[in-house]
Design a protein that fits this description.
Blueprint (H helix, E strand, L loop, with lengths): L6 E4 L3 H13 L7 E4 L4 H11 L2 E2 L12 E4 L6 H8 L8 E4 L6 H6 L6 E6 L9 E7 L5 H12 L2 E5 L5 H9 L1 H18 L4 H21 L4 H8 L5 H11 L2 H29 L1
Parallel strand pairs: 1-2, 1-4, 2-3, 4-5, 5-6, 7-8
Antiparallel strand pairs: 6-7
This protein binds NADPH dihydro-nicotinamide-adenine-dinucleotide phosphate and (2S)-3,4-dihydro-2H-pyrrole-2-carboxylic acid (A1CAB).
């Protein structure tokens, strides 16, 4: 089903590239069926063409009528302008997928044609290698067949979760923004490794394998994170000392607050757009 779909990405930034890479690596969509556009950065389109074999189009040259799926991948502040610009080029049977953080499905539906099929998605940049944790919400006009196509498409980028709209903010806090917390953690692991005498590259490799091993343990073993943690922790041993330092320095609280902060920002983005709409 998927290999017949023509897909246009509106927005050619980090998330668009991660999705393109996921699609191409999956080999389930021929590159020449993927079109990508932005506002005015032709060098960026050329770069994506060269790297992935997709077709970069200046916005004015992109005929949306010939595509099946339109992916909105611009910043939240730019979505209203984008919706205005595409509305009358679309037919309601075409599927619009938005990856824009904080923007509710109903807002997108309200600013497109009556009956437009819409799906809201929250991927993360691990889509690049087919390892995203991706959530989606189906819009009110979206057919079961279109949901199946979207699931097939999103599966090229990783694991998918169908959620209620109300859970998208917390999902964004955990999974959409989540890779950044892990990278930040690695930055600190690397710093400590260097201070302990390792070179940066070795410290990073050790840190990555440790995170990967722990992640796989949580996936494959039938034990809670707390149980797994206890198995690492010998009484009065090194781990107990490390965990105590984490507690003293608010490590757990910091992780919790990072997720809550991102969740809250996702909500705010939604309110800001609502305000913008009601002011007009
Ligand atoms: N980065 C991430 O990890 C994730 C991002 N997202 C969401 O994805 C969206 C994009 O994020 P990201 O890729 O990081 O952002 P970037 O700033 O990297 O890219 C934004 C892109 O949108 C383009 N753009 C803006 N307005 C228009 C328009 N009217 N028509 C065509 N193109 C337009 C820009 O083009 P130009 O350069 O020409 O201005 C640019 O290519 C955001 O809404 C974000 O919330 C969701 C999950 C994860
Ligand atoms: O930082 C952001 O707003 C986007 C959404 C999730 C990840 N990046």
């Amino acid at each position: 089903m998927l290999n017949k779909q023509r897909i246009a990405l509106i927005g050619a930034g980090s998330m668009a590239e991660a999705m393109i890479s996921g699609m191409i690596r999956s080999k389930r969509i021929p590159p020449n069926q993927i079109l990508v556009t932005n506002r005015n950065n032709s060098d960026r389109l050329a770069e994506l063409e060269k790297t992935y074999g997709v077709r970069g189009n200046q916005r004015g040259d992109l005929n949306l009528k010939v595509v099946d799926i339109i992916i909105l991948a611009m910043k939240p502040k730019d979505i209203m302008e984008a919706l205005r610009s595409i509305k009358n080029e679309l037919h309601p049977h075409q599927l619009v997928i938005s990856v824009v953080a904080g923007i509710a499905t109903s807002i997108i539906e309200d600013h497109l044609l009556e009956g437009q099929q819409v799906i809201r998605v929250m991927p993360n940049t691990s889509s690049m290698i087919g390892e995203s944790a991706t959530a989606f919400v189906s819009g009110k006009n979206t057919s079961a067949a279109s949901v199946m196509v979207a699931e097939e498409l999103l599966a090229c980028m990783g694991t998918i979760y169908r959620l209620d709209e109300g859970k998208m903010d917390i999902f964004t806090g955990i999974a959409g923004s989540g890779p950044a917390y892990v990278y930040y953690l690695m930055e600190h692991i690397e710093r400590a490794g260097k201070e302990g005498g390792l070179d940066a590259k070795t410290a990073r490799q050790i840190g990555v394998q440790t995170i990967l091993g722990a992640a796989k343990m949580m996936m494959q073993e039938n034990e809670t994170p707390a149980e797994l943690r206890e198995k690492v922790t010998s009484p009065n041993g090194t781990t107990a000392a490390g965990l105590e330092a984490l507690k003293v320095h608010g490590g757990g609280k910091a992780i919790f607050q990072a997720i809550k902060g991102a969740e809250q920002r996702s909500k705010e983005l939604s309110w800001q757009i609502q305000e913008m709409i009601s002011e007009k």
